[in-house]
Amino acid sequence: MYYDLMQTGLVGELLITGDNDGLKKVCLIKGKNDFIIPSDWIRDEVLFSDVKEQLGQYFKGNLKEFDIRLTPEGTCFQKLVWDALTEIPLGTTVTYADIAKMIGRPKAERAVGGAIGANPILIIIPCHRVIGSSGKLTGFSSGLENKVLLLEHEGMEIKGSERSALVM
């Protein structure tokens, strides 16, 4: 497995992992001890240069859509949900029910929520764009404060305190 690190300026440091087949993971490193990089992983800045360039352009507000080969590890259902998430345009939000309908499983909202919670490629597979049916913010693996930052960065207006905020 190969990895690299990237400072975002907005949400902190990202860990990027993958191999020659594609990108496997993008996650936020919250602290020095948040994630221990396995000793057999190899740091490769060249392999991830395009990923970092596109993420950099996203954080500068210059990129609306990513063009990166994604190879996340997950079940067939999870991958179906993650593929649907990549169809959510920047600056918009959808609900868990919307995603369930998009994948042809309108009664699978809870399972969709589980798959979204297991998303290994933050930002590029934009799970932060999924909200509750009432418009309230719901869970985010990197914390609701970072979900708010990402949504605001994409031009969304957040009303209220972070935990009960409504997306307008």
Shape: globular
The total count of strands amounts to 8
Rg, Cα atoms, Å? 16 Å
Strand content: 15-25%
Helix content: 25-40%
Alpha-beta content class: alpha/beta
- Output the CATH topology of the largest domain: Arc Repressor Mutant, subunit A
CATH superfamily of the largest domain: Winged helix-like DNA-binding domain superfamily/Winged helix DNA-binding domain
3D structure, described in words:
Helix content is 28%, strand content 18%. It is α/β, with parallel strands linked by helices. It folds into two domains: 2-59; 76-167, Arc Repressor Mutant, subunit A (Orthogonal Bundle), CATH 1.10.10. The protein has a four-stranded mixed sheet, with no helix packed on it. Strands 5-6 form a two-stranded parallel ribbon. It starts with a strand and ends with a strand. The mean pLDDT is 92.
Features:
single chain; 168 residues; alpha/beta; Arc Repressor Mutant, subunit A; 2 domains; two-stranded parallel ribbon; 8 strands; globular
Offer a concise description of the structure:
By secondary structure, the chain is α/β, with parallel strands linked by helices. It has helices at residues 49-59, 76-85, 96-102, 109-117, 144-153; strands spanning 2-7, 13-19, 22-29, 42-43, 94-95, 130-131, 158-159, 166-167. The protein has five helices and eight strands, in the order ββββααβααβαββ.
